[in-house]
Each structure stands twice: as C-alpha cells, then as structure tokens.
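Supplementary Note 2. Why include the ligand at all?

Several targets in our set were suspected to adopt different conformations when bound, so apo predictions alone were not considered sufficient. For every target with a known small-molecule partner we therefore ran a joint prediction. The input for NAP is given below.
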Amino acid sequence: MNMRDNTILITGGGSGIGRGLAEAFHALGNRVIIAGRGEAKLKDTVDSNPGIEFATVDMTDAADVERFAAEICERYPVNVLINNAGIMREENFKQPKLSDAVATIETNLLGPIRLTTMMLPHLQRQGESAIINVTSGLAFVPKPTHPTYCATKAALHSFSISLREQLRETSVRVIELAPPYVQTELNGPEQLTDPRAMPLDDFINESMNILKGSDVDEVLVNNVKPLRFAERDEKFEEIFTYLKQM
Ligand SMILES: NC(=O)c1ccc[n+]([C@@H]2O[C@H](COP(=O)([O-])OP(=O)(O)OC[C@H]3O[C@@H](n4cnc5c(N)ncnc54)[C@H](OP(=O)(O)O)[C@@H]3O)[C@@H](O)[C@H]2O)c1
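The joint prediction is reproduced in token form.
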C-alpha cells in the first residue's frame, strides 16, 4: 500500500492499536482522522500529535454511523478507512446475557459493514484507496471464554475476503489486519503489562513494514501466524487447548 499522501479515517483511534496506527501514519505525513465514542481519549491523542483530527461516533448506533459517515465524506477526501473499533467481552452461555452479544456484533461486525457501505462510493471517488479491517488471530482459533467476540472476528475475516473479490476491478483494495495478543486495554488494564502479549510498538512497527509491501491482502505479524495457519498446520486442537487455559 502507498504509505504517504493518504487521508486516513481510523475508528477506535483514541487508544491501543488504533492510536498506534494513527501516530505511525501521521508521522509519515498522512492526514489522519481518528474516531470513537470517548472525546477525552481522542483529544488526548490529538493533543499529543498536533495535526491529527478527530470526530465522535458510536458504532453501535445505526443513525449515528450514518450521520458520521455523511459528515466525514463532506469534510475529508478519505481514501483509507481503517475499521478498527472493537470490544471484547467475556460471556458465559450457562447464564447468558444477550446484551453483550448484541453490543459485540454491533460494534465489531455490523458497525464496520455499515460504515464500509456508506463510505464506499466516497472511497471509490478518491482513486487509489483501501479498506483495512482489523480482525484477530482469534478469528482462526476461538477463545471459548469470548464466543461472540471470536465469531465477529471470523465473520469480518470472511466478509473481507468477499469484499476484496467484489472490489477487485475497482480502485479500492481490501486488507485484513489480524493482530495477535497485543498490550492494549482491550481486556482491561492488566493486558497493558501482560508479558504474554506483544508490546504495542513492536506490533505497530512490524505491521507498518508489512503494509508497505505491494499486493498485501493480510497483515500478519509473526506472532499471529500460529493462529492464522492453525488448521493448515494441524495445530488447531493444541492452540484451542492453550487458549482455553489462558
Ligand atoms: N489488543 C489485542 O490483543 C487485540 C488482538 C486482536 C485484535 N484486536 C482488535 O484490535 C482492535 C483495537 O483494539 P485495541 O486492542 O486497540 O483495544 P482498545 O484500546 O480498547 O481500542 C478499542 C477502541 O474501539 C473504540 N470503540 C469501542 N466501542 C466503540 C463504539 N461503539 N463506537 C466507536 N468506537 C468504539 C474505543 O473507543 P471508545 O471506547 O472511546 O469508543 C477504543 O478506542 C479491536 O478491533 C480489537 O478486536 C486487538
């Protein structure tokens, strides 16, 4: 992918992986707009990185995603959409709480599909453009404590393959970025220092290096490859057992 001269919209860009990508693309001279629900996090990122811009959106709210997409398309020549916003909630289906499943599907799957649908005509008008969908290594081997989360990531993986195929003859590339376990606050503050998780800076640097390549369909850092290729390598049961105990 062309790493410069883009206008890049990153959902969930006020923290973790989204913020890391925002700062890395901003440092390369791209125009970057970050979005999320929490204005404080977004402002903090903008204050630390003058030039990054922000807008608020709640990806679970269809009307708000529609308003947001219209405003962004009106204000910015966005040619790269990074669908990164996500939540990860533990669920126990022996005592089910459907609200967690619904929020997870709306944030991680329906939100990206809605935003993609609304922004595609705009992306196509910008010439060379890209949609980057942030999935997870858990799309390929689920962690059974988080059934709906893993299901949304598997679905976004599948959606990305079909979308890539449908857009093959257009100016829009579809790239999947599947992180391994990374030191962010996705699962709470203890994840930030969990030694089993990849340091965020290392993850961002390795991902940016891969993105630089031409014809990249999937951004796979080395740490995620055992999960990504678990079925092919006949390691599914072994990794599933490890994730169960984690
Ligand atoms: N860290 C990992 O180990 C890991 C591994 C695999 C995949 N991922 C994926 O990487 C992506 C980023 O996660 P992260 O690890 O960087 O965690 P994070 O720091 O918690 O980032 C998630 C971001 O999504 C935003 N968000 C959540 N719900 C939203 C909503 N309804 N509307 C708009 N924005 C919303 C949050 O901002 P607000 O709360 O302010 O809205 C936050 O900035 C996620 O898709 C996650 O599934 C992470």
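The first helix runs from residue 16 to 27. Residues 11-12, 14-18, 36-38, 41, 57-60, 84-88, 107, 134, 136, 179, 181-182, 184-186, 197 surround NAP (CB under 6 Å). Comparable summaries for the other entries are listed in the accompanying table.
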